[in-house]
Amino acid sequence: MGVSKPVSSISYVSFLAVYFSFYTITPICSTSLQYGFINCLHRNTNINFPLENTFFTPERNASIFIEVLESTAQNQRYLTKSMPKPDFIFKPVHESHIQASIICSKKLGIHFRVRSGGHDYEGVSYVSQIEEPFILIDLSKLRQIDVDIKDNTVWVQAGATIGELYYRIAEKSKIHGCPAGVYPSLGIGGHITGGAYGSLMRKFGLAADNVLDAKMVDGNGKLLDRTAMGEDLFWAIRGGGGGSFGIILSWKIKLVPVPETLTVFTVSKTLEQDAGFKILSKWQRVADKLVEDLFLRVFLSVARNNGTKTVTMSYIGQFLGEKGTLMKVMKKDFPELGLTLEDCIEMSWIESIVYSSGYPTSSPPPTDVLLQAKSPLGEVYFKAKSDFAKEPIPVLGLKGMFKKLLEEDAALVIWTPYGGMMDKIPESEIPFPHRNGTIFMIQYYRSWTDSEKRPNKRMKWIRELYSYMTPYVSSNPRQAYVNYRDLDLGENKNKNNSKVNFIEAQIWGAKYYKDNFSRLVRIKTKVDPDNFFRHEQSIPPLSSS
Length: 545
Ligand SMILES: Cc1cc2nc3c(=O)[nH]c(=O)nc-3n(C[C@H](O)[C@H](O)[C@H](O)COP(=O)(O)OP(=O)(O)OC[C@H]3O[C@@H](n4cnc5c(N)ncnc54)[C@H](O)[C@@H]3O)c2cc1C
Ligand SMILES: *[C@@H]1O[C@H](CO)[C@@H](O)[C@H](O)[C@H]1NC(C)=O
Ligand SMILES: *[C@@H]1O[C@H](CO)[C@@H](O)[C@H](O)[C@H]1NC(C)=O
Ligand SMILES: *[C@@H]1O[C@H](CO)[C@@H](O)[C@H](O)[C@H]1NC(C)=O
Ligand SMILES: *[C@@H]1O[C@H](CO)[C@@H](O)[C@H](O)[C@H]1NC(C)=O
Ligand SMILES: CC(=O)N[C@H]1CO[C@H](CO)[C@@H](O)[C@@H]1O
Fold this sequence. Notes:
Blueprint: H1 10-18, H2 30-44, H3 51-54, E1 55-56, H4 62-71, E2 89-90, H5 95-108, E3 111-115, E4 134-138, E5 145-148, E6 153-157, H6 162-172, E7 176-177, H7 188-193, H8 201-204, E8 211-217, E9 223-224, H9 226-237, E10 247-254, E11 256-257, E12 262-270, H10 278-286, E13 294-305, E14 308-319, H11 323-333, E15 345-347, H12 349-355, E16 381-389, H13 395-405, E17 411-417, H14 421-424, E18 440-448, H15 455-468, H16 498-513, H17 516-527
Parallel strand pairs: 2-4, 3-4
Antiparallel strand pairs: 1-2, 5-6, 6-10, 7-11, 8-9, 8-10, 12-14, 12-15, 13-14, 13-17, 16-18, 17-18
This protein binds flavin-adenine dinucleotide and 2-acetamido-2-deoxy-beta-D-glucopyranose (5 copies).
């Protein structure tokens, strides 16, 4: 670091020719910001970065700039014309570029956002609603994956997707897996900072529970591993949310055993087929108590079918074993669902990832779709919220919920079972506190496309649904999953008033982290007292109160 080096690729020279204005202490126009940043990067890194591959500005080529900005951004709600845009995008190709980016941003007083996979629900990885100007550091070129079967571990760089991670593990072994999320396009960098649950969670916990080490760059541009950062900071980054403590370069994750053959199934019931909610009620009573090998979610989806609206309840299961064993489990504990042998499909773990990914599947599922960077969901606008159920929702509550669901033409509610390993890990082991006593997590999700107008109506509807659910879910605090970021929680009305922000932070902080929030604030105060790493819902340091 700090070794100055005379880089002068052709593009750099021509770039300087265009942007002749010089950087001054307070950057007043964007081009001086760009000039200052590039100049500083050159002074602070000894590895070449060809500008045309790493540096994207609207001035140089607006269409390429927008393409790069939108490339992994998942929520179209944050890509509309009125949303603030970064001044420029920098894509580091070497870890030292990230160190230099931090040193230079700090020196020049530039606010930045960091993006790994771009799945943030409120777009905070690529849009700042609280600072102007801001820049985007996009880690998508850092996606190396080193699987070490002998050591039973993997080192994975932040910009890799979990689909790639799973694929690379399966390439080396049929009996090793990794307990991260369900959707293959998730970026490993942001995903694990919030916990990261998936179909192996009931047996092995979250990805964050299985992290052994990490490499991170702190606010001084220093590269830290677990030993160098110390146990407090290592605790904070495994579930304390992204963008608060530093930039994660890579995670070292423990691999877990999976059987060579496992079983998946989908059983769907219409409202008519589950009149009286006998099946749905039974699911709520058993979901967290079933054997840990079984992960059985319920998708409640509203759709128009031949002109009439209906809610379909799809029971989507993954069982770490053969179908014969699964049938015995289901006959004993959940016969009401009526699972048959014909519903059961046996496959490998990696195929099961594709099966539940949302990508179109054939039989057997084509696993190379996991290397695709594109999300299976396509370009959608969405708003989502989360809840945790500690008791089964009574039939009366379900009736009201379905009535509310049927007000919309399309909506999705996902129930994810807890229990098993999730009960056994203490609440303060890592910042993620949603443990023993949770039956299931709820996600409310409303998406729409360009052709479907009236976004405000959608937002209003999901807020009403959330409000309706109040008596049936966790309270004091009403818990929420930080990876399903929700800017409604502790509304950010006073965007530039740190005192008010701290009070608001205590509201969403309690929801995301319960009592662990106070420890996160203590650690933040120690490692980043000036709040260099910040966004709409980053952990605030105490000094700002
Ligand atoms: C379609 C879809 C499916 C999902 N499925 C699941 C699921 O199955 N399980 C689950 O647990 N969650 C799921 N999520 C939520 C997901 O875990 C979070 O959105 C997560 O933050 C995504 O990580 P990312 O790197 O893709 O996001 P990004 O938007 O890149 O980042 C998210 C946050 O982390 C910060 N960040 C990004 N990279 C870094 C880094 N390298 N160092 C420090 N901070 C960083 C960002 O600034 C931002 O605050 C899903 C989300 C979507 C949109
Ligand atoms: C921007 O890049 C695109 C794609 O490479 C190219 O077709 C276009 O001509 C470029 N526009 C300008 C103004 O350079
Ligand atoms: C926020 O407040 C600080 C200090 O009062 C000020 O310097 C800064 O420009 C403000 N930022 C915005 C976005 O208003
Ligand atoms: C829709 O209606 C048509 C004609 O009545 C019928 O043939 C078809 O099966 C229906 N489709 C569904 C999915 O119910
Ligand atoms: C979970 O909580 C229940 C009720 O408080 C308790 O009986 C049980 O022992 C706890 N389980 C674990 C694994 O801690
Ligand atoms: C150190 C600290 O504050 N730990 C707390 C983390 O959260 C759990 C549960 O919410 C508390 O029990 C701990 O005291």
